[in-house]
């Protein structure tokens, strides 16, 4: 069946003649080569005019090698294998918004194996057609190459099917199994289950899927989304239950932050550049900041959130994972196990969080410009007396030789003034600085800083002290910049695409191992317990503000200054700056209409100045 | 002290009343500072740079972020504000004001006369007068100054003014009062004609100068913009007959400073008959370039560079200079010297010394120059083997024929003078042992540029090795400081190409001056003239530096000339002789500039 949909289906149909088979075979072989080369064989594209090095060597050497010693299943005779991806909880939001679009994007870019089917599974009664209809609304093609978009969508949707059933019914999963078998029609079957369902039914589904719908011939893998428990115990319990039905290497715990482009790039930056690694220790780094902020609140969907809070929702997983990647020692290789071993070591070297190292906050209602924004407890899905933190800042320490004494600060919050996620590395001051006079008394004010902005507008920049051009000797902090948008025109893939593909390929680097999870919970559990048992009151902050001031005092205690609270406009790409400039101007204009500016001349002048100053960047 | 003197240097706000006492000086700062604190950041920066043109030296680092200018919490703002003020005040502790810097003496009572000897020459017209005007335009000259043109041509003051006025331009970014300022400036320009070797004529000059000084303390600066063979004569006459009686007398000399160790030493000796070491200002205008000035700032005020600044991390350093035109009918002077003397032995070597020096004790001129001399003295003299020379030949491209070097009428037909040279140098000290410092300079090449490239070593035990193939050195980090054109700093890093695969890519962390700083970058001559007026010697070459520089190059120059070594010919507009590549290859280096880079 699925073969009918393959590249050649439109042409002649069956491959009766031997010749055809051969040509078909070689076609996919080259296909695979192409793909695998792109993905697994690292290559360096040089922009400095050197010949594209290493590529020829890799073509001969490593492709041959990978074909020879290939262990993972998917590439094992792809024409004879079939991949089924079952999205459990297909009618849910995540499935609609992220999973199906990501699958389509992979299909669109030819990353998926030749033979695959996508199954939606949920309790809702629905036909295949209805599922397709639902999905099609959220599919988009890459902006940068729109060719055949409609055709591709059609083809993709034809491979999508739906099966309705209860999550805890082994029978229903048995039915699913039958259907899958039918599609597989005797091919080697590989099955991936994506559990996009509430945590309380994780185990049921895993039980049913694993006992009734496991692949008989190929692999069966299960992708699980957060939350992985609420604390050490519940997490351990969950792991134990999962392991009743699955082995460790079948469990793919997704942390979609690890699929972000710049998080992936973090290791590349560190380990493939000579200039960074020597600086990567307490000798040169003063502190590291992991900052996450959202500019909206729970907006009527606080039910889940209220049970977890920002620390569990963002810090204990996303930020801590990034921290571990940031701080780990050089792994033996880029293999998943090697990397995860190093990450666990970091987590195990960390000091358990203490209450005094944490500040929690909760947003309250706020009116601005005639518009009022609701507070957290105004959300109907949130209990009126909730003390769940929607903001938290924490100071963590890694007690190992490399990082002893270096504060790692985290900050995460909802309903703040911006949406962003970034890593900021503040370096120490220059010892015996010749230019000390130019810095005044606080030598820490003008230290170097490396910023990796994960979102929005991916960028890397390094703040350096520089002489302001001119006759004097004025120093200035400017940036060595890399804006992804200006350098790379291609659309950056969504984190889910990367992670799904990795799961399909059995690449576990970006998934969380059980012992990592344990170690992560061990750091946060005592603190979470303490906050909850003592009902610690969060510091209230207005919706849309910069968060509670407590975060500053926490930072100050460790002699740190948050790097993100500034007019960072300089680091916006030029067009964004232009937009701001325009917006600002319009704002000024509108405020002038409201007679705020009595003196028109002054108003125009100030508008002009704003314009100028922005253009100046 | 450097920063202090600079912070004081041009504070005579001509618009206001002039003589500034300590308190008024501080006031200037205070006026500006609170402003910058309450207004949006960039605006503030702009304000400061506009208003305090003549204290561009407020010596405050402009912070792009941090608390200043943040509206986050008021508690945050107050502390830094106060602190900042304190800092500003602390920058100029009271005792600094006793600094015996001449300009700072009472402006009412002192005057500076700048005499451009060789005023009808090209350099004077194109560079010196415009630079002086730019300084005047930006209020950086002292209250009382006069400019004298001196040369053999007969000319009236008006004629000089007429000549000068044609080359004056105002800063592009602030054109206010341009014509007015020009008028005012020209009013202060005078002309005196005379022979370069005539004490009498200089005596007349002295008399006129005295008139203009009208009893004030007289400080005199002579800019010798004349051929080297009459240096000494002019210095003798000027010093004997036209020295300042009560202030200082300084002489700016341009290259060439001799042709080799011997002639240079002779020149220095002759100069010293009439002048003290601290009266001689040997100009190397490359040292006045913005990014060369910035080199030390980059190294010494950033934590991230200094740890990397040694043989442990740096694989090689390249100093590259290229011009996209030939001698174009003015080869007479050049043919006598050649590219090695014209560019390498002075400009590139000076930059090299700045690049490689140890951290000086302070930013004082003597401290910096001490360190530079140490570098030069640790270097191995060049041998013929370490050098590749070339000469451009004619070339026809797209119907246009470009002349070869020997086609130039002012060049002898059999000239072997190199118009291109590449050299490898080594510094035998603990920091740089074994690191090749490569230089390349040439005329009539395919582009015009000057840059410093620092190539770093490969990452030891790189876990991304597979991505790099066999040659690990191909994808190393590289720091590029482009001195001209389009000043820029960029650091090449390896980066993941966004997308689902794992492809690495060399991209740049960039700082393009044009994009970041809208202000026009002053010409090197402005900076150097101002420094000379203020007695700041940091960017001028001391006699012992010059000696050390010559002793590195003299043997190879002698060899080349005595053995009449034939240069490798390269077509006009090409990338230069291929020999440069073989020279680099010998030290396992690849020139970084020959790519589709920018």
UniProtKB/TrEMBL annotation, chain A:
It catalyses: D-glucose 6-phosphate + NADP(+) = 6-phospho-D-glucono-1,5-lactone + NADPH + H(+). The keyword Coiled coil does not apply. Pathway: Carbohydrate degradation; pentose phosphate pathway; D-ribulose 5-phosphate from D-glucose 6-phosphate (oxidative stage): step 1/3. InterPro entries: G6P_DH (IPR001282), G6P_DH_AS (IPR019796), G6P_DH_C (IPR022675), G6P_DH_NAD-bd (IPR022674), NAD(P)-bd_dom_sf (IPR036291). Keywords: Carbohydrate metabolism, Glucose metabolism, NADP, Oxidoreductase. It comes from the Eukaryota. PANTHER family: GLUCOSE-6-PHOSPHATE 1-DEHYDROGENASE 1, CHLOROPLASTIC, GLUCOSE-6-PHOSPHATE 1-DEHYDROGENASE G6PD. This is Glucose-6-phosphate 1-dehydrogenase.
Automatic annotation (TrEMBL), chain B:
GO terms for cellular component: chloroplast stroma. Pathway: Carbohydrate degradation; pentose phosphate pathway; D-ribulose 5-phosphate from D-glucose 6-phosphate (oxidative stage): step 1/3. Residues 116-294 form the Glucose-6-phosphate dehydrogenase NAD-binding domain. SUPFAM superfamilies: Glyceraldehyde-3-phosphate dehydrogenase-like, C-terminal domain (SSF55347), NAD(P)-binding Rossmann-fold domains (SSF51735). One of its GO terms (biological process) is glucose metabolic process. One of its GO terms (molecular function) is glucose-6-phosphate dehydrogenase activity. Its EC number is 1.1.1.49. The keyword Oxidoreductase applies. It catalyses: D-glucose 6-phosphate + NADP(+) = 6-phospho-D-glucono-1,5-lactone + NADPH + H(+). HAMAP family: G6PD. Catalyzes the rate-limiting step of the oxidative pentose-phosphate pathway, which represents a route for the dissimilation of carbohydrates besides glycolysis. The main function of this enzyme is to provide reducing power (NADPH) and pentose phosphates for fatty acid and nucleic acid synthesis which are involved in membrane synthesis and cell division. Belongs to the glucose-6-phosphate dehydrogenase family. This is Glucose-6-phosphate 1-dehydrogenase. The lineage of its organism: Eukaryota, Viridiplantae, Streptophyta, Embryophyta, Tracheophyta.
């Amino acid at each position: 069946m699925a073969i009918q949909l393959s590249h050649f289906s439109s042409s002649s149909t069956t491959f009766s003649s031997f010749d055809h088979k051969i040509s078909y075979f070689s076609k996919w072989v080259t296909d695979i080569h192409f793909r695998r080369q792109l993905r697994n064989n690292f290559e360096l594209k040089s922009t400095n005019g050197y010949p594209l090095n290493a590529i020829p060597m890799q073509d001969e050497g490593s492709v041959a090698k990978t074909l020879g010693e290939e262990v993972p299943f998917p590439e094992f005779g792809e024409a004879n294998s079939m991949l089924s991806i079952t999205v459990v909880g297909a009618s849910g939001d995540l499935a609609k918004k992220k999973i199906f679009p990501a699958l389509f994007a992979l299909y669109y870019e030819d990353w998926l194996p030749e033979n695959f089917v996508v199954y939606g599974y949920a309790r809702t009664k629905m036909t295949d057609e209805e599922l397709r209809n639902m999905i099609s609304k959220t599919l988009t093609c890459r902006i940068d190459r729109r060719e055949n978009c409609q055709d591709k969508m059609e083809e993709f949707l034809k491979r999508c099917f739906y099966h309705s059933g209860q999550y805890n019914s082994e029978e229903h999963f048995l039915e699913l199994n039958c259907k899958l078998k039918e599609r597989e029609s005797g091919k080697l079957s590989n099955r991936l289950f994506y559990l996009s369902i509430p945590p309380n039914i994780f185990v049921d589904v895993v039980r049913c899927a694993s006992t009734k719908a496991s692949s008989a011939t190929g692999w069966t893998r299960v992708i699980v989304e957060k939350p992985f428990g609420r604390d050490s115990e519940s997490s351990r319990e969950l792991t134990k239950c999962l392991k009743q039905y699955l082995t460790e290497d079948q469990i793919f715990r997704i942390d979609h932050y690890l699929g972000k482009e710049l998080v992936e790039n973090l290791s590349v930056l560190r380990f493939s550049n000579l200039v960074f690694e020597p600086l990567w220790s307490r000798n040169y780094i003063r502190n590291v900041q992991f900052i996450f902020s959202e500019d909206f609140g729970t907006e009527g969907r606080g039910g889940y959130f209220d049970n977890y809070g920002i620390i569990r929702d963002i810090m204990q997983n996303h930020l801590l994972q990034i921290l571990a990647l940031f701080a780990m020692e050089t792994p033996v290789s880029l293999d998943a196990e090697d990397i995860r071993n190093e990450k666990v070591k970091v987590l195990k070297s960390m000091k358990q969080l203490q209450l005094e190292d944490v500040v929690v906050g909760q947003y309250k209602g706020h009116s601005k410009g005639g518009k009022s924004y609701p507070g957290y407890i105004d959300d109907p899905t949130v209990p009126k007396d909730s003390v769940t933190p929607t903001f938290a800042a924490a100071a963590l320490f890694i007690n190992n030789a490399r990082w002893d004494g270096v504060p790692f600060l985290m900050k995460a919050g909802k309903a703040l003034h911006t949406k962003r996620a970034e890593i900021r590395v503040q370096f120490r001051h220059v010892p015996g600085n010749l230019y000390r006079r130019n810095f005044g008394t606080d030598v820490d004010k003008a230290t170097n800083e490396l910023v990796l902005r994960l979102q929005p507008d991916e960028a890397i920049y390094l703040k350096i002290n520089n002489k302001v051009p001119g006759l004097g000797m004025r120093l200035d902090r400017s940036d060595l910049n890399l804006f992804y948008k200006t350098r790379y025109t291609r659309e950056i893939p969504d984190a889910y695409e990367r992670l799904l593909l990795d799961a399909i390929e059995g690449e576990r680097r970006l998934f969380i191992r059980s012992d990592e999870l344990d170690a992560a919970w061990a750091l946060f559990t005592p603190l979470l317990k303490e906050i909850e048992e003592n009902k610690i009151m969060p510091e209230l902050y207005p919706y849309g503000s910069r968060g509670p001031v407590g975060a500053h005092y926490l930072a100050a205690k460790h002699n740190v200054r948050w790097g993100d609270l500034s007019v960072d406009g300089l680091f916006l790409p030029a067009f964004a700056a232009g937009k701001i400039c325009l917006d600002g101007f319009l704002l000024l204009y509108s405020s002038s209409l409201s007679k705020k500016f009595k003196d028109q001349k002054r108003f125009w002048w100030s508008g002009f100045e704003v314009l100028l100053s922005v253009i100046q960047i | 002290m450097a920063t202090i003197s600079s912070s004081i240097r041009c504070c005579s706000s001509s618009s206001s009343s002039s003589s500034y006492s300590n308190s008024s000086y501080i006031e200037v700062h205070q006026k500006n500072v609170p402003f910058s604190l309450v207004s949006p950041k960039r605006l503030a920066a702009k304000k400061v740079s506009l208003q305090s043109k003549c204290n561009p030296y407020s010596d405050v680092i402009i912070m792009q972020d941090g608390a200043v200018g943040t509206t986050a919490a008021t508690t945050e703002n107050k502390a830094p504000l106060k602190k900042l003020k304190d800092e500003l005040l602390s920058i100029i502790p009271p005792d600094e004001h006793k600094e015996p810097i001449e300009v700072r003496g009472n402006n009412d009572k002192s005057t500076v006369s700048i005499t451009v000897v060789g005023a009808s020459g090209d350099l004077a017209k194109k560079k010196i007068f415009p630079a002086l005007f730019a300084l005047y335009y930006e209020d950086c000259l002292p209250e009382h100054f006069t400019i004298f043109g001196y040369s053999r041509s007969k000319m009236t003051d008006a004629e000089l003014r007429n000549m000068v006025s044609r080359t004056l331009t105002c800063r592009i970014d602030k054109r206010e009062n341009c014509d007015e300022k020009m008028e005012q400036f020209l009013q202060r320009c005078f002309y005196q004609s005379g022979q370069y070797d005539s004490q009498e004529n200089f005596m007349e000059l002295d008399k006129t100068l005295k008139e203009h000084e009208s009893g004030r303390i007289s400080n005199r600066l002579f800019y010798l913009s004349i051929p080297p063979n009459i240096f000494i004569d002019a210095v003798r006459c000027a010093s004997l007959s036209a020295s300042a009686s009560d202030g200082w007398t300084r002489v700016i000399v341009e290259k060439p400073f001799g042709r080799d160790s011997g002639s240079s030493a002779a020149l220095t000796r002759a100069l010293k008959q009439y002048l003290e070491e601290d009266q001689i200002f040997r100009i190397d205008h490359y040292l006045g370039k913005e990014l060369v000035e910035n080199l030390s700032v980059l190294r010494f005020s950033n934590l991230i560079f200094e740890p990397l600044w040694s043989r442990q991390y740096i694989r090689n350093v390249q100093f590259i200079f290229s011009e996209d035109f030939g001698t174009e009918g003015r080869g007479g002077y050049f043919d006598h010297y050649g590219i090695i003397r014209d560019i390498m032995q002075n400009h590139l070597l000076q930059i090299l010394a700045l690049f490689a020096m140890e951290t000086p004790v302070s930013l004082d001129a003597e401290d910096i120059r001490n360190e530079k001399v140490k570098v030069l003295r640790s270097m191995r003299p060049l041998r013929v083997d370490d050098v590749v020379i070339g000469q451009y030949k004619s070339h026809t491209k797209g119907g246009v024929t470009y002349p070869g070097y020997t086609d130039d009428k002012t060049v002898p037909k059999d000239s072997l003078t190199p118009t291109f040279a590449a050299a490898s140098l080594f510094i035998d000290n603990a920091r740089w042992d074994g690191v090749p410092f490569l230089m390349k300079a040439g005329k009539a090449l395919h582009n015009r540029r000057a840059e410093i490239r620092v190539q770093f070593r490969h990452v030891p035990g790189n876990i991304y090795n597979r991505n790099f193939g066999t040659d690990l050195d191909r994808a190393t980090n590289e720091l590029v400081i482009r001195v001209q054109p389009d000043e820029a700093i960029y650091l090449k890093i390896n980066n993941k190409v966004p997308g689902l695969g794992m492809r690495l890519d060399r991209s740049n962390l960039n700082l393009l001056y044009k994009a970041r700083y809208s202000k026009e970058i002053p010409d090197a001559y402005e900076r150097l003239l101002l420094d000379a007026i203020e007695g700041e010697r940091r960017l001028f070459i001391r006699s012992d530096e010059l000696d050390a520089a010559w002793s590195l190059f003299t043997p190879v120059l002698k060899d080349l000339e005595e053995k009449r070594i034939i240069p490798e010919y390269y077509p006009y507009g090409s990338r230069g002789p291929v020999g440069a590549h073989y020279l680099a290859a010998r030290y396992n280096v690849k020139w970084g500039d020959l790519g589709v880079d920018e």
